[in-house]
Write a structure and sequence with these properties.
It contains three helices and nine strands, in the order αββαββββαβββ. The protein is α/β, with parallel strands linked by helices.
């Protein structure tokens, strides 16, 4: 299935989805509240079968945060990127750890580095950083390290 066919199918699943042009993979932009039901459809729809979430990351745009998910269908060999903008002051989005096990650690990393709350995550706690770093979010652009005097 090519990108145009994927666009048609995804529009059937979520009429409010928009697409960014350019790039090899289909880039889909959705509202954060649509993420969990949309992800479930991507995984379970027989024509799509997106069964492998291989990258989850966050982007700090200074005024907002954006969650970015890279998903692959190992059955049909197609890839998509799903992006959703979050409120910078209260960034939250539904966890998809119940759909794709790889999301468990990816979401924990984004939680500690950017402060995104993954609603429904089974074990949302620090993954890499030592105790005492809760809420410091060192990958945000407004992070200041007073010990090492790093300013971004």
């Amino acid at each position: 299935m090519g990108n145009e066919e994927l666009k048609t199918k995804i529009t059937e699943l979520l009429a409010t989805a928009t697409f960014e042009e350019g790039g090899e993979w289909l880039n889909i932009v959705i509202a954060s509240q649509d993420w969990l039901p949309f992800a479930q459809q991507l995984r379970d729809d027989e024509a799509l079968k997106f069964d492998f979430l291989f990258c989850v990351t966050c982007i700090d745009w200074k005024t907002s945060l954006a969650m970015v998910y890279h998903i692959r269908s190992t059955k049909y060999r197609h890839d998509i990127v799903v992006r959703s903008t979050l409120d910078r002051d209260k960034p939250e989005i539904a966890s998809v750890a119940s759909l794709w096990q790889t999301a468990n650690f990816h979401e924990r990393e984004v939680y500690e580095m950017f402060g995104v709350n993954f609603i429904g995550h089974p074990d949302l706690r620090l993954l890499i950083l030592p105790d005492g770093w809760e809420g410091k979010n060192p990958m945000r652009k407004d992070f200041e390290d007073e010990v090492n005097m790093i300013k971004l």
